[in-house]
Amino acid sequence: MVGFAAVIRIPRNRLSRARRRVIIITAAIVVAIIVVLGLLSTFYTEVLWFDETGYQMVFWRSVATRVELGFAFGVLFAALMPLNLWIVRKITNPARMFSVPDQILERYRATLQPFMKWGVIIAAIVFGLFAGSGATVKWQQYLLFRHPSKFGSVDPIFHKDLGFYVFKLPFERFVFTWAFSSLVIITLIAAAGHYFMGGIRPQQRGERVAPEVRAHLSVLLGLIVLLKAWGYRLDQFNLLYSQRGVVTGASYTDVHAQLPALKLLMIIAIVISVLFFVNARFKNWLLPIGGIGLLILTSIVAGGIWPAAVQRLSVTPNERIKESPYIKRNIDATRTAFDLQDTRVIPYSGLADLKASDVQANQATIQNVRLWDPAVLINQYVSLQRIKQYYEFFGTADVDRYHFASGERQVMIAAREIYPAGLSQGAQTWLNTHLVYTHGYGVVASRVDRVTGEGQADFIIQNIPPKSTDGGPAITEPRIYYGEQQQTNFVVVDTKQQELDYPSGTSYTAYTYDGTGGIKLSNFFKRLAFAWRFKDVNLLISSAITPDSRIMFRRTITDRVQRVLPFISLDGDPYIAVVDGRLQWIVDGYTTTSMYPYSQRINFNSTSNTLVGGSGNYIRNSVKVTVDAKNGTVTAYAWDPTDPILQSWMKVFPDIFKPKSAMSPALLQHVRYPEGLFSLQTDRYSTYHITDPGDFYAKEDAWSVANDPTASANNLGSQPPVPPYYVLMKLPDSSGLDFALVRPFTPNNRQNMTAYMVAHSDPADYGQLVTYRFPNSDALFGPQQIQGRINQDPLVSQQISLWNQQNSKVTYGNLLVIPMAGSLLYVQPLYLTGQGATFPELKRVVAVSGGDVKMGDTLTQALGAIFGTAPPSAIEGTAPNGKSVKDLIADAVAADQRAQDDLRNGDFAAYGRDIAAMRKALDDAAKAAGATPSPSPSPS
Question: Of 480, 508, 539, which residue is a domain's last?
């Protein structure tokens, strides 16, 4: 029985091993099938998505280019490696005598010999895959290399069109790096192969390297050195981005020392490569090895020591003179690269006395003074217009302009988007989040200059369904399936389960999607592919989904646009506009590069949180993109067709960009200059407004963007710069209203105002940059100084102290700088969040002109207090008590003076009475002048 058991036990062990082998193989097959199906489902659904968006060309061209690059570079490496190993095997002499260590190696060789063929094949495939995958990520560089455009100007050293550096040089640099590293790896593998096969015997006396091996390695080393010569040539071009000097670009030392050294090294490398090739015939290492030594010595002396000596002994003691020509090149290149070269500079006094007649002459500007900050206003939108917890307003309110019967007015607007996370936990079912709560509804909008009597926004579009009042644009299609933030990765529409359209009392109005967005789930395979992609079996088994149902994914605006335009950098702040009754998202697109010769590089996101990260030294707002909020239709416009980078992409993808002329007039009036780009340009202009190289070197007139006095200090204890803000005003050199971005400058390390930069946004002069240059005078106060005066004003400080005592939170609005009649008017709103309140309300407006700081409930009151009179058109009005507006303003001024005396005397009771009298007089004056509409009074 023992023997029988033993006989039985052996087959069981074998069976166990066989079972384990079957299980392992089966598991491997299952894993492979899962991986392959995942890849296929992703690829198939990507094809469907690009078909839906209409950008199939982008998808197929990018895929084909990646395959082309991966195949070419991968196959090349996979062929070169076994070819050289075949040469190793071919030239091996099996009859050679081996020493004792070689005999040990021979035993290893004998053991591995049966696996050599397949081992080499597998290694070649693996190395080839790595080599090819590294090339696929360069598909954009390759397409630009194949489709270059000319910039129309040449660099000052090599006299090549700048297009060579932007389109050709990056890919050439990649090819060199890939070829050099690949050849080094292959040479090391070949040398290891020769050692393994006995061709290299370092421990043997006499001939340690076989002649055939020496010839093989000489050819490989010669190719490496020849590639290095090409690298020295590319290094010469890279001098145009050198950081050695005062600024970016080839400096005095680069041109007079480093460039000659690189040329010499290139020649020496070519000669040495020839010596290696010759050595393949004569098999003598002396000359090529000596040449390598010469190359290293020359690199150290001519490429390192000599340039350092020139820099230290010749340039540093005379840097301003020596570097001036090269600084000038950097100035010109940087101004051009950041589109600053055509900036107009207009002298502006800023010190004139502003009169009531000037204010009256600029009533259109006064009526558009922005009294609402986007970050403050969005809190009111959320509190007053969110309506239901499953809606949300993301980000801040966007600034735009619309036409009203009274003219063009600045407006703030925000989209009411769907927010399924706001549902109760029990309501967050698969059906609700993917089939019912599918879309947002409408927008909320208000004029920037108006406020209700309660200090709240005066809505021109509000509620659900959206209601437009006071001339606000009418909305005919309010549904928002595509927005700034979409919390659900996909939704399915046009199903048997109707969607929630909008709330109605305790119930809701149902809706079935009737648009063109999304991909039809018309067959089982599509449902299976999407179920696999999203790992959601409900897509496959839900009875609510029909062949007419559509699946929508990539519903976040920036993600959607970036997928169809992967070669365009996008602004991170899309904004919504009402265009012919429909809701359209507008996104700014940029073409950028870091290869513009002599231009100063900068981290884009260091100047604005809306610019995509990364660095560069050239940027153009060359593309405008719209996305329909209901259908997700992406339309790209070639906004700046003169940009060479965009021209190249239009060669690659000739049918995806529409001309700017194809924009409808209704859409064109909502195009605006992007804040992110203007932030970048003003940062550059603060230094690069200086065009004289000597002055630039000395930084005698360097500026800074003015610090924001209302912002909290950062970790370093300094305040951030004033953000760009949109204005609708009559600019000093204009005859009508201009919609523009503005930003003030101060001298470095000083607080007085030195300049005020404007970027026009209206279609007629879009992109025109104008700098209003103030005289060099400490009398022209900057934002921080004005804020200090506001804080020190007795009336303002007393009011804020009173609010603080009531446990209310005071928020200072943006301090607006408004050029007017040769002077500067400063306006700042004050917001109050009462104890227990959920949002701030606008309670006061401060105006500053010259030496006067005045505060009122409205801007009209504040201006009236400054000038001691109302604007001329309002003087003739009378109050119910029979007093004229002029008399009431005089009463207010007198009460203000009494209040100042009371404050100095410490009589706070009298101070409170006189302040109340001043406000009543101003209120009566405003009512008599008709400046405060009822029931929604306006601060202007």
Answer: 480
Q: Which of 674, 624, 682, 669 is nearest to 762 (CA)?
A: 669
High-pLDDT (> 70) share of the chain, %: 89
pLDDT at 7: 45
Q: Are residues 228 and 196 in the same domain?
A: no
Residue type, 685: Y
Among the residues of 167-210, which ranges form H helices?
A: 169-197
Per-residue model confidence (pLDDT) at position 933: 33
Residues 6+ apart with CB under 8 A from 121: 82
* Domain span including residue 573: 555-600+616-656
- 204 occurs within a structural domain: yes
* Beta-strand relationship, 499-504 and 507-511: antiparallel
Q: Same domain, yes or no, for 227 and 177?
A: no
What is the value of pTM for the model shown? 0.88
Helix/strand/coil percentages in the chain, nearest 5: 50, 20, 30
Cβ proximity of 163 and 150 under 8 Å: yes
Residue owning tokens 């579009």: 461
Q: Are 15 and 21 in contact (CB under 8 A)?
A: no
Q: 75 and 188 share a domain? A: yes
- For 497-549, write each residue's pLDDT tens digit: 999 999 987 788 999 999 999 999 999 999 999 999 999 999 999 999 999 99
Instruction: Please report how the helices 319-337 and 675-688 are oriented relative to each other, as an axis angle in degrees rounded to 10.
Output: 160
For residue range 270-319, list pLDDT tens digits in order. 999 999 998 888 767 788 888 899 999 999 999 999 999 999 999 999 99
Tokens encoding 476: 């005919």
Tell whether omega for the bond before 211 is within 30 degrees of 0, i.e. cis: no
Strands (E), 298-397: 344-347, 391-392
What is the CB neighbour count within 10 angstroms for residue 147?
15
For 540, list phi and psi in degrees, rounded to 5: -90, -30
Domain endpoint, select from 461, 480, 499: 480
Tokens 């950062």 sit on residue = 714
271 shares its domain with 170 = no
CA distance 470 to 377: 19
| Residue 431 pLDDT > 90 | yes
Residue 671 in contact with residue 586, Cβ under 8 Å? yes
The neighbour count for residue 349, using CB atoms within 10 Å, is 16
Residues with Cβ < 8 Å from 574, sequence gap 6 or more?
Answer: 484, 557, 558, 585, 586, 587, 627
- Which pair of tokens denotes residue 363? 């009533």
Phi then psi dihedrals of residue 772, to 5 deg: -90, 115
Mean pLDDT, all residues of the chain: 88
Q: What is the pLDDT of residue 871?
A: 44
Q: Record the tokens describing residue 810, joined without a space.
A: 């005071």
Alpha helices in 95-168 (DSSP H): 100-112, 116-136, 139-146, 162-163
Q: Smallest Cα–Cα separation from 635: which of 586, 567, 688?
A: 586
Confirm whether 919 is domain-assigned: yes
- Is residue 925 located within the same domain as residue 781? yes
